[in-house]
């Protein structure tokens, strides 16, 4: 297959390396608004650098991988749909609900393939948790706790473009919570703190957030996130039921230290960031996409799945702003 890749930043460069060595990829065309960066990635991976995004479409690729700036996602998704191209796109589809719905409708109208990059669905720990819940091994699931903590804030210029902590960061927790439990969120209550660096207040964002979510079977879930976790990158999920309890993301690189005399030793090599922690999952999702393009498997995360996760994030943002519980029924889904 001839694959087009748009965006050669950190995650785009990673995808380029994966695609360049994949057995089903015969050639790779890359493009970026930063032509020098695209040329460097092309040189490193054996790809061809296109002068612009227009050439990626004009040169006749079989599928498209979108890893560009978030603000360009919806337009590129729609363009791929109009061209009849199957596409993989890093989350989110768009930063707002209206833009997301418009792109989803265009994809569905064209009848084309769109897979969204919620990589945690391809992580071995989360996949095992999903199987445990489905098997009944936990008994009746009553509590879910999700944690996402970044070791340091992103650049100040990124914040106004990110969509905020709920849409940019916690949306991963919302998606994986639905996927692991097989349940829908029906109500949220969320709050946040901007007590950290001033750039969060200036962007109208928060550096730390917490949400209580009620699932459609009565299971209670919490989701917390922060941009300021000095110990390291920490992503976990705990699932507690009437029969057992399990944790995802608890290993010898989890940046947490026990205060108990007989507790586990201090982690000496914590995860530094998302790409290191989820590298195998990122590679697996690209492999899955190519399998979907070849017709060998079903789409593991389509546009509607991404929309559901965004609706939860939107409900949390509204809850934080209005200091009240928000039902998911209040957030448009069509």
Automatic annotation (TrEMBL):
Residues 126-243 form the GFO/IDH/MocA-like oxidoreductase domain. Keywords: Oxidoreductase. GO terms for molecular function: nucleotide binding; oxidoreductase activity. PANTHER family: BINDING ROSSMANN FOLD OXIDOREDUCTASE, PUTATIVE (AFU_ORTHOLOGUE AFUA_2G10240)-RELATED, NAD(P)-BINDING ROSSMANN-FOLD SUPERFAMILY PROTEIN-RELATED. It comes from Streptomyces montanisoli. Residues 1-118 form the Gfo/Idh/MocA-like oxidoreductase N-terminal domain. It comes from the Bacteria. InterPro entries: Gfo/Idh/MocA-like_OxRdtase_N, GFO_IDH_MocA-like_dom, NAD(P)-bd_dom_sf. Pfam families: GFO_IDH_MocA, GFO_IDH_MocA_C3. This is Gfo/Idh/MocA family oxidoreductase. Belongs to the Gfo/Idh/MocA family. Transmembrane segments: none annotated.
């Amino acid at each position: 297959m001839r694959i087009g890749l748009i965006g050669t930043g950190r995650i785009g460069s990673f995808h380029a390396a994966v695609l360049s060595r994949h057995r089903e990829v015969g050639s790779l065309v890359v493009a970026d608004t930063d032509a020098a960066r695209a040329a460097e990635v092309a040189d490193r991976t054996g790809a061809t650098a296109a002068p612009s995004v227009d050439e990626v479409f004009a040169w006749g690729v079989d599928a498209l991988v979108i890893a560009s700036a978030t603000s360009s996602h919806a337009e590129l998704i729609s363009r791929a749909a109009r061209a009849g191209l199957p596409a993989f796109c890093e989350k989110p589809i768009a930063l707002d609900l209206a833009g997301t719905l418009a792109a989803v409708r265009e994809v569905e109208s064209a009848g084309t393939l769109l897979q969204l990059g919620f990589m945690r669905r391809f992580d071995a720990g989360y996949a095992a948790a999903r199987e445990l819940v489905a098997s009944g091994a936990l008994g009746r699931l009553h509590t879910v706790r999700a944690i996402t903590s970044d070791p340091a804030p992103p650049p100040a210029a990124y914040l106004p473009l990110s969509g905020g902590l709920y849409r940019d960061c916690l949306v991963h927790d919302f998606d994986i919570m639905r996927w692991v439990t097989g349940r829908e969120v029906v109500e949220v209550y969320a709050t946040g703190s901007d007590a950290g660096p001033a750039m969060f207040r200036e962007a109208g964002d928060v550096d730390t957030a917490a949400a209580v979510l009620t699932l459609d079977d009565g299971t209670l879930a919490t989701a917390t996130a922060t941009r300021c976790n000095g110990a390291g990158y920490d992503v976990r999920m705990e699932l507690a039921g009437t029969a057992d309890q399990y944790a995802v993301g608890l290993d010898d690189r989890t940046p947490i230290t026990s205060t108990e005399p007989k507790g586990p030793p201090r982690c000496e090599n914590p995860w530094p960031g998302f790409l290191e922690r989820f590298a195998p999952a990122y590679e697996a999702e690209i492999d899955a996409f190519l399998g979907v393009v070849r017709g060998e498997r079903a789409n593991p995360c389509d546009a509607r799945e991404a929309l559901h996760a965004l609706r939860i994030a939107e409900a949390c943002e509204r809850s934080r702003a209005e200091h009240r519980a928000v039902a998911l029924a209040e957030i448009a889904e069509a």
